Description:
Layout: E1 4-15, E2 18-28, E3 37-45, E4 48-56, H1 68-85, H2 87-95, E5 110-114, H3 122-136, E6 141-144, H4 160-163, H5 172-181, E7 184-190, H6 198-206, H7 208-215, E8 224-230, H8 240-253, E9 257-263, H9 266-269, H10 278-291
Helix pairs in contact: 1-2, 3-10
The structure holds flavin mononucleotide.
Amino acid sequence: MTENVRLIRRTDLETPDGVFTLALSAGDLSSLYPGMTRYALSLSRGAEVIGTFLTNTYEYSPTVSLDAETAALQKAAAWERELRENRDRFLAVLGKKIQKRPYALPISDVAVIQGSPRADGNCSIMAGWVVEAAEAAGKTVQVIYPDDLDIHPCIGCYRCYNTGVCAFEDDMVDVIRVITHSSLLVICSPVYTNTVPGGLKIVIDRCQTFHAAKTLGIAGKMPDSLLFAVCGRKGLSNFASLTSVVGAFVGNLGIRLAGEVLVDGVDHLRDVRLVDGLEEQVKERVRSCLLSPPPGP
Length: 297
Ligand SMILES: Cc1cc2nc3c(=O)[nH]c(=O)nc-3n(C[C@H](O)[C@H](O)[C@H](O)COP(=O)(O)O)c2cc1C
């Protein structure tokens, strides 16, 4: 994505502590979303950038009287006033490092998202097979259980399109870190009312931040992915919506879906371990992804 940037205004402020420069620019992101503009305000002294404020037009509902350009101009005016009137206190607050939450989930070669809320259900059993296959291939593996985590649903604020980072600092920070460091992302999911369970859907929606980072040109390499899904009813048509959701998810992020195994009629058997050859099929998919990955881009 190319962002066309125009300078709206630049102000040099002479102070006893040197010359501070406030620069406000607008970047055209309409190739990403119709009419999207991102405003960037920066405060610098010489080559040192002291603070930045980013906002975009999609953050502001048409029903509110504030818009992105006004918000950016107001911020620029407020910073200028603070620099003139309360410089020491203002610079101290702006320069304060934000305490980041510690990471809890270790990074690994393989990230498994186990989307069923049932800790001992079919998807958990399949996630266990993935762990065994990955470890047998000499890889580290991490199973993520969305229902055990504190992950706020996406609120569509579009603030991730300013920085490539979500506004919420909850457990999704860890999940994103694990996914970006893995070479293989495995999704294990049951069909719930034709689609994925709510906890997994929240994770999928929150991954929009990857899309933002990708379009801003700051995303790293994406892992390959595999999908292992189960449903109660008989017939592969029961997976139509789930595969469409997962397909949209990986497609949106530029993740290659390297394969899928869909197991229907499981309510009848109640246990995937009773499906002939399934364990070997799942493990083989994992093995072939890890041992003979596709050639690079
Ligand atoms: C809330 C809920 C909704 C479900 N919706 C469907 C469905 O739409 N179609 C289907 O075939 N099975 C449906 N199922 C059955 C599950 O997909 C099936 O029991 C699956 O094996 C559960 O996986 P798990 O053991 O990993 O939790 C549903 C189950 C639950 C609890």
